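Posting here for the record, re: S-adenosylmethionine.
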Amino acid sequence: MNFPPDFISSVRPLLGSETELFLSALSGDASVSLRLNPSKAVRNPMESVFPSKRVPWSQWGLYLEERPAFTFDPLFHAGYYYVQEASSMFVEHVVRELVTEPAVCLDLCAAPGGKSVSLLSALPEGSLLVGNELVRQRAHVLSETISKLGYANVLVTNNMAKDFSAFPHLFDLVLVDAPCSGEGMFRKDEIAVEEWSMQNVEMCAVRQRDILNDIWPALKPGGLLIFSTCTYNTLENEENAFWIARELGAEFVSVTTDKGWGVSSSLDKRVKGYRFFPHKTQGEGLFVTILRKAEAGAEDATVGGQRVRSKNKKKPLPFMKDRSAYANLLLHPDSFIFMEDGNRIFALPVEYSEVIVTLNERLKTVSMGIELGEKKGKDFIPSHMLAMSRELNLSAYPIYEVVYEEAVSYLRRESIILADAPKGYLILTYKGEPLGFVKNIGNRANNLYPNEWRIRSGHLPEKKAEIFTP
Ligand SMILES: C[S@@+](CC[C@H](N)C(=O)[O-])C[C@H]1O[C@@H](n2cnc3c(N)ncnc32)[C@H](O)[C@@H]1O
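Prediction output follows.
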């Protein structure tokens, strides 16, 4: 691969005699990995995934020997696993080691959702995750990723970092997986190579400081910031990490790593950080640093000492007093508060319902808790998010198990014919896992799979694309 000469000259001082090994690894093939969704993969243990070896810093990460056609595996769409680059899974290790109490967590730059997936599996039970993404279309991709996982303790928003200054000290943990120059993605993404320039590196470094400065007031004193990039240069990494500690007021925090993982330490003695280089670790380029915000002091000075509050306050949404119509949809209805927004019905985890409602009043919400469905006249149309939720009560609707070809046809949003099935709303399952709802009207079933998520390819692979062996 032809790397920009300025990029090569910028890595030489960092890597010295290892530069050639690094460049040759960066020209090689990226490894294929996925992380199982612990909330859904219970019936299919890790061992049932075809030839694979574990990602050592992750409890649920696996390397595959080849890249299957994931699109045609129904369990991929059912949220059984997420295709994720291995280095990124290090966030799971950091959170598991440092966060031991339920936490309110913000993943600020979250789309497409890889690190949110890691956070959700590692945060202690009883935590809340706010997954935020600035770019609207990408915020919907994030919501799709999170919905498929089936967690209820999540809010997905589409805001700028500074919008969160309306919530001073709300978050125990903030992850800023910052937009960066993407040098670590060079072997996966040719566009990242084409777009690389020193000016872009400098621009990214400045933008990262702006984002960090804007989000700082929302982090609790004593709270943790995880700052990460998928690039190698020190301007966006060590320099910015040092700037956070000095200018925003924070101390570096370490986590343990095993020598065998091949993780390198920061290239600057003033900074604690973790680096993933492709000639040393099996994964793409990554830099991670962790800082604890000072207990008191400078933090709010960055916003002029004022608690900035958004004026864009929507009308508060009412909680429903009569829960009877929807309670049977969930396995643990008493753990939820039911809420109506227009015709849409949501279930929010009791312990975070007020926080979610407050956030929803001031932010652009894409999804929250579990969307149960929509009222249309006398009809109630169950939502796809309910089908994906691990809270779904499988006895709320009749179940219809489909075979592989029917599952792919459903995921393409084709209308399907179900032999001997009752009329009305049904849950389609594949290998016992919910794929979504249909409304069976007798001679055919109306497909309720979300149009924007459908498999667009008409091709069907010769071999069933299935990750799990029977
Ligand atoms: C490195 S990606 C995040 C990847 C994601 N955390 C994951 O693991 O799947 C950075 C994200 O930041 C978003 N972004 C771009 N500019 C931003 C800004 N000024 N403030 C916040 N986020 C921004 C991008 O749209 C992009 O989705």
